[in-house]
Design goal:
Helix 4 links the parallel strand 4 and strand 5. The protein has 526 residues and is α/β, with parallel strands linked by helices. Helix content is 56%, strand content 10%. The chain is built from 21 helices and eleven strands. Strands 6, 7, 8, 9, 10 and 11 form a six-stranded mixed β-sheet that branches. It has a five-stranded parallel β-sheet with strand order 2-1-3-4-5, sandwiched between helices. It folds into four domains: 126 residues, Rossmann fold (3-Layer(aba) Sandwich), CATH 3.40.50; 146 residues, Reverse transcriptase/Diguanylate cyclase domain (Alpha-Beta Plaits); 101 residues; 105 residues, Homeodomain-like (Arc Repressor Mutant, subunit A), CATH 1.10.10.60.
Length: 526
């Protein structure tokens, strides 16, 4: 807490310094001014919490100073000390919120009582301000989650439109009367090599940033709202309630904005116009279907419109993979890696010659291949990476390379010990839950081992303390947000698991040698 004493008489300033028990309230910064103008300068530089001021001073008197303080520093507590009882001097103190009006010569007991009263008021109000600020921060974090959940339920038919209608109008800018709408969906899968990797594979974080980009495009005309999906089949949902005939152009603008910001195009599924709100569920299904039925082999066009009657037809659409699956089964049963790789090469060549391969077909194919590979290693981990190139488009060559790598790993077997598998599971858990309040006891209970074993095994396998690993993970996430978003430090602190912004800044500086602001500024330099 800082204090400013304003009086043109030096002996009055010295008396206030002498009588008030500053140490009791841990006050060490006490400034002095001989007139109102000098006081204004000190206020702007130091922002004291308590001001003792005379009323009659040269250049700028106490009444003018009180009015200025009330306008620019309304939380500051003021104590007026004057040699006059005239109402014209008392009135400004009353009007502009003075806590006490003391007459000269000063009575030490009255001065101390007035000072302690002002200190107590300021401390109480400061505590309330901190509490309100904390609540606002929590609301700022929780509000987007509320809309993510509410709108996800709405488009899935699990919530009533009438319950959220007023909020949609007041908070999101939806017109009071909407006749029709469209729904668009964005999948992050196609951007794996460029966008997801930029955010270290964190789907939640990437979705948060991507929704913000979409809403920046939609906000000027208030045509709709983008939110993170709680339903399967997409990561971002866009509810478009205005200018629905121009929705395709709006999606192109969003893709252009994403491309300018992150250098990648997104796959966007778009429904037909439907009646609002009764057609919402149908629009959501249409948009999801337009994504799942998009042609992975298509190199042009990232906006996928729903078709009432999708083409049926050709031999390539009816292409069956059973023959290749049988060949892979036989090669797997033989245990001969060369045979398996030859099957993959033959299969990739056939796939590259197709004209149509939908995402749903490809997902079914991956599921069937997984079942075949389990015969090679029933206890082995079988997982497929996303087979996309640097432009975010499906790549047969990447699929070929990935499948061969998986076969090699499964053929060699896994040398992992139970402890190393446990530590890997802990690392994955931390990567997915770094934003939560995380304690050693919580992790121990989560994995059914003692706290001592958690620490010992983690250090034994990784060579790093678990707490240091979690801090490094959070700092890396914070770096990504500082470099790629304009979020406030308080928001970034919350997103990476620190409720206290100052503590977050200390941890960040200790880890990187720079404060978060210095790190962000460095990233902005050419």
């Amino acid at each position: 807490m800082k204090v400013l004493i304003v009086d043109d008489e030096k002996h009055v300033r010295e008396a206030i310094r002498y009588f008030v028990p500053w140490e009791k309230y841990h006050i060490t910064d006490i400034y002095e001014a001989s007139n109102g103008q000098e006081a204004m300068r000190i206020m702007q530089e130091q922002q004291p919490a308590i001001v003792f001021t005379d009323m009659r001073m040269p250049l700028m008197d106490g009444a003018e100073l009180l009015e200025w303080l009330h306008s620019h520093y309304p939380h500051t507590k003021t104590i007026v000390i004057s040699g006059y009882q005239d109402f014209n001097y008392v009135k400004p103190a009353i009007v502009y919120g003075g806590t006490d009006y003391l007459l000269k010569p000063l009575n030490s007991k009255q001065l101390i009582a007035a000072a302690e009263h002002a200190f107590k008021l300021w401390l109480e109000e400061e505590q309330e301000r901190h509490q309100a600020h904390r609540q606002n921060m929590q609301l700022n974090v929780l509000r987007p989650l509320y809309w993510d959940k509410m709108l996800s339920d709405l488009v899935a038919g699990q919530a009533s439109f009438q319950e959220v209608r007023n909020s949609l109008c007041e908070e999101l800018g939806m017109p009071l009367f909407v006749a029709e709408c469209r729904v668009a969906l964005i999948s992050l899968q196609g951007a794996d090599c460029r966008l997801l990797h930029r955010f270290q594979g964190d789907v939640g974080l990437t979705s948060f940033v991507l929704a913000n980009v979409c809403n920046e495009v939609l906000a000027p005309k208030q045509n709709g709202f983008a939110f993170r999906s709680w339903q399967g089949g997409a990561d971002i949902v866009l509810l478009l309630w205005s200018a629905v005939a121009e929705a395709e152009e709006e999606m192109h603008r969003i893709n252009e904005s994403i491309s300018q910001t992150y250098g990648v195009q997104m796959d966007i599924g778009l429904s037909l116009p439907v009646a609002f709100p009764e057609g919402l569920q149908r629009a959501f299904r249409q948009a999801r279907q337009s994504l799942s039925e998009r042609n992975l082999l298509q190199r042009e066009g990232r906006i996928h419109l729903f078709r009432e009657q999708p083409g049926s037809g050709g031999p390539e659409e009816d292409y069956a993979y059973e023959t290749q699956l049988d060949k892979l089964r036989i090669a797997v049963l033989s245990g001969d890696l060369d045979k398996m790789e030859r099957v993959v090469d033959e299969w990739s060549d056939q796939m590259a010659g197709l004209q149509l391969l939908t995402e749903s077909q490809f997902q079914q194919l991956q599921a069937e291949i997984s079942e075949v590979l389990r015969r090679l290693r029933p206890d082995g981990e079988i997982s497929f990476e996303l087979c996309y190139d640097s432009e975010g488009l499906f790549s047969v060559e990447n699929w070929r390379s990935q499948l061969k790598t998986l076969l090699q790993r499964l053929s060699e077997g896994s040398a992992q010990t139970p402890d190393s598998r446990l530590v890997e599971e802990i690392r994955q858990y931390l990567q997915q839950n770094y934003a939560r309040d995380m304690t050693l006891q919580h992790i121990a209970e989560r994995f059914f081992i003692s706290r001592e074993n958690v620490s010992r095994k983690f250090k034994q396998i990784t060579g790093e303390n678990l707490s240091d690993y979690l801090t490094g993970l959070r700092v890396d996430k914070a770096k990504t947000l500082l470099q790629n978003t304009n979020l406030r430090l308080s928001q970034i602190s919350e997103l990476v698991g620190y409720e206290d912004e100052k503590y977050f800044s200390r941890v960040f500086k200790k880890s990187t040698g720079q404060s978060p602001r210095e790190y962000r500024k460095q990233g902005e330099s050419p």
